Amino acid sequence: xxxxxxxxxxxxxxxxxxxxxxxxxxxxxxxxxxxxxxxxxxxxxxxxxxxxxxxxxxxxxxxxxxxxxxxxxxxxxxxxxxxxxxxxxxxxxxxxxxxxxxxxxxxxxxxxxxxxxx
Length: 118
What we know:
Blueprint: E1 2-5, E2 9-18, E3 23-30, H1 46-52, H2 54-59, H3 65-76, H4 82-106, H5 111-117
Antiparallel strand pairs: 1-2, 2-3
Region (Disordered): 96-118
């Protein structure tokens, strides 16, 4: 695990589960280490990326998928595929459409009412 605290503090802790004590035990603690940032993270999901970049994508709806991919690499330190970026954009657009529908329904209109009044 890599912890960042402040500007220059980086430390690494290695722990393993002890079945006798039923907890994690620290095996190694390195106060300073200089390893490179790994961009291989298989646990990141499109929902996490959508949550992280939701405001950015809402402000720039025409942002290209390659730009989203570059921002994931620079801000989250994760390499993702173009298909992941497509899903991220789709999730944000669905949330925006859902919010618009909720706002429209709160005003007292339903699907049939809006057609009858126009």
